[in-house]
Amino acid sequence: MTSPSISVITVCMNRLEHLRAAASRVAQWEHHFEHIVVDWCSQRPIERDHLPSDQRVRLVRVDGVADWHPGQAYNFAASCAQGEWLFRLDADCWVQNLDPTLLIHQTEIPAWVANASQEGSLGEILVLAEKFWGIGGYSELMRGYGFEDKDFVYRLEAAYHASCGSLAAEQVHFIPHGPQLRAVVRDSNAVARAFKRSSSAYNRFVAASVPWTARRRRASYRQLGADHWLWEMGTLPELPASIAEEARRIRRSTFWGYFLMLPEQYVIHTPQVLLPSDQSGRFRVRWFHRLYWQTVRRLIALPLDFLAVMRRLVG
Q1: Running DSSP on this structure, what letter comes out for residue 13?
Q2: What are the Cα distances from residue 7, in Å, to 42, 85, 144, 171, 205?
Q3: Which secondary-structure segment (H or E) carries 21?
Q4: CA 146 to CA 154: how far, in whole Å?
Q5: Which of 85, 205, 253, 302 has its CA 20 to 30 A from that of 165?
Q6: Strand ranges inside 140-220, DSSP E
Q7: 290: left (phi > 0), else alpha (psi -120 to 50), else beta?
Q8: What is the structure's pLDDT at 301?
Q9: What is the rounded CA–CA span in Å between residue 282 and residue 277?
Q10: Residues linked to residue 12 through DSSP beta bridges, in sequence order
Q11: What is the C-alpha to C-alpha distance for residues 57 and 157, in angstroms, rounded to an integer?
Q12: Mind telling me which CDD domains this protein's record contains (predicted)?
């Protein structure tokens, strides 16, 4: 069976070491004709010499962005691809022992995704470009990491009235890493996990409130040179004001509730000066928040920690 025309798309923001390790493994896969690597405004620009000498690798640079919004980033990467099929592989992922010719003939299956049990590789998906753009790609109304991949799969399955297929665990591999890299947060694991949880809750609400479609306008970019683009500020789609306010409230209550182990009602009624809302998606965690985490929160968690230990002992 003839191999399909597959474009591997990868976006990297300040994760060069993971990218170099994963890209070298992607280069060993023989079933794609191009690998689009988008440098999403990394502080240290990625150079072509950082990547494998494989002629299929094409490095594209985007300037002007400050935040990591996977939906926006992967829509741009997909727009650079020329393949009939798109294969999203994050900067820490690669595939082995995967023959796509065994999958593409199953036309009743809209796409193939990494199994939900494969922590760290859930966003990897092989999909026809026509179907990708048929639902508008990823939602660019979502902010930060989390749920943009699930939302895409749910919309795809609803559009084609069929479930996506699963890629086997032995076919999709990834480099394990902490939550800071996943959430692009330079702070403790606890803060990064809370941020990831809050951005996922925000994006879930967005998906339910303002479903993304192919008719919606996406972000715009201006070409500066060969494979060099600039995001045009102000073109990223925004939520209606009333929905944006509720989404931000959800992000605040989820972040502080998860980080400090506080009930939602406590967070809602606590003054902003103590538990402030995010600023451009980032929360200011001050010394007294960390003190509370190290003392009161640990005491609150003791009963749960005790039950967890007992369960392991009992088996």
Answers
A1: S
A2: 22, 6, 25, 17, 31
A3: helix 16-26
A4: 14
A5: 205
A6: 165-167, 172-174
A7: alpha
A8: 83
A9: 9
A10: 39
A11: 31
A12: Glyco_tranf_GTA_type
DSSP helix/strand/coil, 111: strand
Rg (C-alpha) for the chain, rounded Å, is 21
Between CA 109 and CA 112, with CA 110 as vertex, the angle to 5 degrees is 80
Instruction: Show the low-confidence residues of the chain (pLDDT under 70).
Output: 1-3, 116-122, 177-186, 315
Q: Using alpha carbons, select from 3, 11, 21 the residue that is nearest to residue 124.
A: 11
Over the stretch 150-196, which tens digit does the pLDDT of each residue have?
A: 999 999 999 999 999 999 888 999 888 665 445 455 678 899 999 99
Residues 6+ apart with CB under 8 A from 82: 5, 7, 34
Q: What integer pLDDT is reported at residue 304 of this predicted model? A: 79
Rounded to whole angstroms, what are the CA distances from 119 to 10, 160, 176, 214, 219? 18, 26, 9, 29, 29
Q: What's the confidence (pLDDT) of residue 116?
A: 53
Q: How many residues does the chain have?
A: 315
Tokens (6 digits) for 267:
């967070």
Token look-up 């022992």 returns 97
Token representation of residue 189:
């694991």
pLDDT in tens, 254-273: 999 999 999 999 999 999 99
Query: What is the spatial distance between Cα 114 and Cα 300, in angstroms, rounded to a whole number?
Result: 36
Domains and CATH numbers, the chain: 6-179 (3.90.550.10)
The pLDDT assigned to 104 comes to 85
Beta-carbon count within 10 A of 265 CB? 10
Which structure tokens are listed for 24?
């070298």
Place of tokens 């297929």: 165
- Could you tell me which of 156, 106, 87 has the C-alpha nearest to residue 1? 106
